[in-house]
Write a structure and sequence with these properties.
The protein is of the alpha+beta class and about 270 residues long. Helices cover about 25% and strands about 15% of the residues.
Length: about 270
């Protein structure tokens, strides 16, 4: 198109629209399509742009602040939680640079989706018998909203069907629901919302445990990618794809695995 024509068209738009960064409709659609009972609309014309929930509440979609990685973790708008595409495919490990896809969570959004208090989450718990064919048949508690517990049940069945050499990583688990903050922070852990599971701690690597020995945090992992593939197939992201790795940690975040948001790496 003729550049002058572009200029003329732009001049006809309101000044605020010219100055505002574009709202990422694809990322919003990943959220809305995944949680249609909770997420109603994106009010992109509002200042600031807002996510409208089914109960009428509004959450800031884009606060227009430029943030460091730490600022994004501690004070995200909803858009920040979808800013780093979650990678799948054979080229998805080790993590590129300092990426932490899915590690940013929005407290009010998590509360609206899964329960905003310990009592509310307790009321949403559903039993999942974990790997009844190969494990001790332990009962785990997971959030029943938005298909999370049902997804964990499917993970359990698929892990039960994997060859025996994989079982030692997953038959013993290290916890699902516990109302707590992330170590060293004021932020609620995904375990508080009963949407995360830690597998066998014996084979895990966690960045905080490595920090003193290896301050640059070179990637460490012993969890076979066949196990990761099972979880991802059912809507879980893996903490092993984070620069701040937590390789026992799997978290139900199907919005990040939506085809319009996930990133395929060959
Ligand atoms: Zn965890």
């Amino acid at each position: 198109m003729n550049p002058w024509l572009v200029l003329v068209l732009n001049l006809s738009a309101p000044l605020s629209a010219l100055l505002a960064p574009p709202v990422d409709a694809d990322r919003f659609e990943c959220l809305r399509a995944t949680f249609p009972q909770t997420i109603s609309a994106l009010d992109a014309a509002a200042e600031p742009a807002a996510v409208v929930l089914a109960d009428g509440r509004r959450l800031v979609w884009d606060d227009k602040r430029t943030k460091t990685a730490d600022e994004r973790l501690n004070d995200p708008d909803v858009q920040d939680t979808l800013a780093e595409p979650y990678p799948m495919g054979p080229g998805s490990t080790p993590p590129k640079g300092r990426e932490d896809p899915g590690r940013t969570r929005h407290t009010a959004l998590m509360g609206a989706l899964w329960g905003a208090s310990e009592q509310a989450v307790r009321g949403a718990l559903e039993k999942v018998v974990w790997m009844p064919k190969h494990g001790p048949g332990k009962t785990l508690y997971f959030n029943k909203h938005h298909g999370a517990a049902a997804a964990l049940r499917r993970v359990s069945a698929d892990l039960d069907a994997l060859p025996a050499k994989f079982h030692k990583y997953v038959t013993v688990t290290a916890g699902t629901f516990v109302w707590r903050h992330i170590a060293g922070t004021e932020r609620l852990s995904a375990h508080s919302h009963a949407i995360a599971i830690d597998i066998n701690v014996k084979y895990t690597h966690y960045w905080r445990w490595s920090l003193k020995r290896e301050p640059d945090l070179p990637w460490r992992n012993r969890i076979p990618l066949e196990i990761v593939e099972v979880f991802e197939r059912h809507g879980f992201i893996w903490g092993g794809k984070w620069h701040h790795y937590d390789t026992m940690h799997f978290e139900y975040r199907p919005e990040l695995l939506h085809p319009r948001c996930v990133e395929r790496r060959e």
